[in-house]
Design a protein that fits this description.
Blueprint: H1 14-17, E1 29-32, E2 45-50, E3 55-60, H2 73-80, E4 89-91, E5 113-115, H3 116-126, H4 129-139, H5 144-159, H6 181-192, H7 195-201, E6 205-208, E7 219-222, H8 226-230, E8 234-242, E9 246-255, E10 258-267, H9 274-286, E11 295-296, E12 317-320, H10 336-359
Antiparallel strand pairs: 1-3, 1-12, 2-3, 2-10, 3-11, 4-5, 6-7, 8-9, 9-10
Helix pairs in contact: 2-4, 2-5, 2-6, 3-4, 4-5
Protein name: Peptidase S11 D-alanyl-D-alanine carboxypeptidase A N-terminal domain-containing protein
Transmembrane segments: 329-349
Keywords: Cell shape, Cell wall biogenesis/degradation, Hydrolase, Membrane, Peptidoglycan synthesis, Signal, Transmembrane, Transmembrane helix
């Protein structure tokens, strides 16, 4: 069966490609000069950052468009988790259960009554698309589920995640849905700032209560993020997969007083699953000096009118095309220096043409 084709995203604004620092405006690999090479991964784009300071330690195509799959659920959490009472009891409707058959679900039943906290646990542990629909409906207020998706896009804009657009609350593929490794890091950092989110993302198992509706018994659920079970210091994160997106992953871990975050998009499951690729990148990040930075996750209040940081990254950087880097949308690999040079050449040619017109040539 042929793999689904990627829809064309909007053109990548060069200014937006440099958000977080000019070194991040590359479709290839960017790391600090003199540090160890990052591990080989199949992800088409990735980023490693310090969750506390927001310093970007390295990446590959950090601003390249990608398809999110279920890591998009983090944007749902960032948008509506602060506004919902975890103790509120809600009733599941028929429309809440309208999602792609066979896709991930926590097993909510029509007419069942669940706490909002149970919904968040179902979302984070089992990647429940049914839970995503309910939470989006609640977060959307009178706008319902569509209002929840609108809130997600408004939150992306507020965070400065300008290459992110949600079409579904669950991350199931929808028209015009995309994100980037850099944007995912912004979104995940906003999520981890909430104690409730850290508790949900870090839970290894939970109980879904019995329901009078349909005589449904209670049952346990386990977190499907293997980083949490098998990586020392793991704080949690989110996995994702669709045929279109391939494997996506967001994970955070703490070691020796440092807390790092990894995001990756477009990975294959062989020779290693997405979470293991994320773990390898975390290991690499923990091995770097604290000052080995190539950019910054920019808080909304610190972005200027062009959505760029006002200062450059701390250390010298190396930028080069990534070996085997794949992208369905890239028209050309443009490093920051080449981009600036091209703009200068175009400006010079424009002035010369204007001069010739004035001279009658």
């Amino acid at each position: 069966m042929a793999r689904p084709t990627h829809p064309a995203p909007p053109p990548l604004d060069p200014a937006r490609a440099a958000v977080g620092g000019p070194a991040l405006a590359t479709a290839g690999l960017v790391t600090t000069s003199g540090v160890a090479e990052p591990p080989e991964v199949t992800a088409t784009s990735w980023l490693v950052a310090d969750l506390t300071s927001g310093a970007v330690l390295g990446g590959c195509g950090p601003h390249e468009y990608g398809v999110p799959a279920s890591v998009q659920k983090l944007l749902l959490a960032a948008a509506v988790l602060p506004h919902l009472d975890p103790h509120q009891i809600i009733e599941v409707t028929e429309s809440d259960l309208d999602f792609e058959p066979g896709s991930s679900a926590v097993g909510l039943v029509r007419g069942g009554r669940y706490s909002v906290e149970t919904l968040w646990l179902g979302l984070m542990l089992n990647s429940g698309n049914d839970a995503a629909n309910v939470l989006a409906r609640l977060g959307g207020g009178i706008g319902g589920q569509a209002g929840g998706v609108a809130a997600m896009n408004a939150e992306a804009a507020r965070l400065g995640a300008y290459q992110t657009h949600a079409a579904t609350p669950s991350g199931l593929d929808g028209p015009g849905q995309y994100t980037s490794a850099y944007d995912l890091a912004l979104i995940a950092r906003a999520c981890f700032a909430h104690a409730d989110f850290r508790r949900y993302a870090g839970a290894k198992m939970a109980e879904v209560p019995a329901q009078a509706a349909n005589n449904t018994k209670g049952y346990p659920i386990w977190n499907d993020n293997q980083l949490l079970h098998r990586y020392p210091g793991a704080l949690g994160g989110k996995t994702g997969y669709t045929d279109l997106a391939r494997h996506s992953f967001v994970g955070a871990a703490e070691r020796n007083g440092r807390t790092l975050l990894v995001t990756l998009l477009g990975a294959e499951s062989q020779p290693a699953p997405g979470w293991q690729q994320g773990a390898a990148l975390l290991d690499w990040g923990f091995g770097l000096p604290a000052d080995a930075t190539v950019g910054q996750l920019v808080p909304p209040a610190q972005a200027d009118s062009r959505n760029q940081v006002s200062s450059a990254a701390g250390g010298a950087t190396r930028v080069r095309p990534e070996r085997g880097f794949r992208t369905d949308w890239l028209l050309g690999t443009v490093a920051p220096v080449i981009l600036v040079g091209t703009l200068l050449v175009l400006l010079l040619l424009q002035r010369r043409r204007a001069a010739r017109r004035r001279d009658g040539r």
